[in-house]
Design goal:
The chain is α+β, with helices and mostly antiparallel strands. It has helices at residues 2-32, 131-134, 242-251; strands spanning 39-49, 52-53, 59-61, 67-84, 89-102, 110-115, 119-120, 122-127, 158-165, 175-181, 191-196, 203-204, 210-218, 236-237, 255-262. It folds into 2 domains: 1-33; 35-262. It is built from 3 helices and 15 strands. Strands 3, 4, 5, 8, 9, 10, 11 and 14 form an 8-stranded mixed beta sheet that branches. Strands 1, 2, 6, 13 and 15 form a 5-stranded mixed beta sheet that branches. The termini are far apart.
Length: 263
């Protein structure tokens, strides 16, 4: 009897162990799976010149007292993420999609996204197009070269573009042109940023609901902090290099979340 009972225990214990481990693994796999992105998130970008709304053709003044008018203002964003810094959780939003924000077209300044329901306190994205896409051959959608934001396969995409006129410029008709690019080496301008929600607030995104985040893009940030960019000195930047990187370091600071509305 003792021998039979002992044999029964030897058989039973491994079976129990396998069952417990199996249940544990199943639980871990279920908890590791991301919930579906079922919250409708709208990102609305608004161009401003400091505290004033930016209107193409109107005159504004930069940090150096130089008057200027804008005729083109656009930039790429990708790798959008939502963060909860308390829990350390982040979720990708519309992963692997690229967006061209173009303020000449109001519809192109509004991005319709799908987010994972959760509580967040900031949003992040990359300004520009990552290096892989710069050397991946002909692209479509927002990355179509027909959008006028592509140089060559060697120099890649124009990550951000600002054009206009200024009496401070020494170019024909006072034109200024900033076509900012460069995706490798010390003058790589493709950089991530994160933006906190106003007043440090958290927002809770619920399944099958919607929300809207308004983000301003301050054109005057292109000319100041951390680098001094004067239209009278540098009215043109059309190639990757140190000047392009300096302008990008400035415009990365142009974004501010001004309003969050959740349903």
């Amino acid at each position: 009897m003792k021998t039979a009972q002992h044999s029964f225990r030897l058989i039973l214990l491994p079976a129990l162990f396998a069952a417990v481990m199996g249940a544990s693994c199943q639980k871990e796999l279920r908890s590791a799976a991301d919930p579906p992105a079922s919250h409708s998130l709208t990102l609305r970008f608004k161009p401003v010149a400091d505290t004033a709304s930016l209107v193409f053709g109107n005159t504004y003044v930069n940090t150096w007292g130089e008057r200027y008018a804008v005729s083109a203002f656009k930039f790429y964003i990708c790798q959008v993420k939502l963060y909860n810094t308390d829990s350390g959780v982040s979720y990708d939003v519309n992963k692997d999609e690229y967006f061209l924000v173009d303020f000449s077209n109001p519809d192109a300044a509004v991005l319709q996204l799908k987010a994972v329901p959760f509580t967040y306190d900031r949003i992040g994205f990359v300004v520009g197009v990552d290096s892989i896409r710069n050397v991946s051959g002909a692209q479509t959608g927002a990355l179509d070269p027909a959008k006028g934001m592509f140089w060559t396969w060697n120099t890649g995409y124009i990550m951000a573009k600002l054009e206009g006129n200024s009496p401070a410029s020494n170019q024909v008709n006072g034109k200024f042109e900033y076509h900012i690019g460069g995706f490798s080496g010390p003058d790589n301008v493709v950089k991530p940023l994160t933006l906190s929600f106003p007043l440090g607030q958290e927002i809770t995104l619920q399944a099958d609901k919607s929300s809207q985040i308004t983000i301003t893009a301050n054109v005057n940030a292109w000319f100041f902090n951390p680098n001094d960019i004067e239209l009278s000195v540098n009215p043109v930047c059309m190639t990757p290099g140190p000047l392009s990187r300096q302008i990008a370091e400035n415009y990365l600071k142009m974004f501010t979340i001004t309003n969050v509305v959740t349903q």
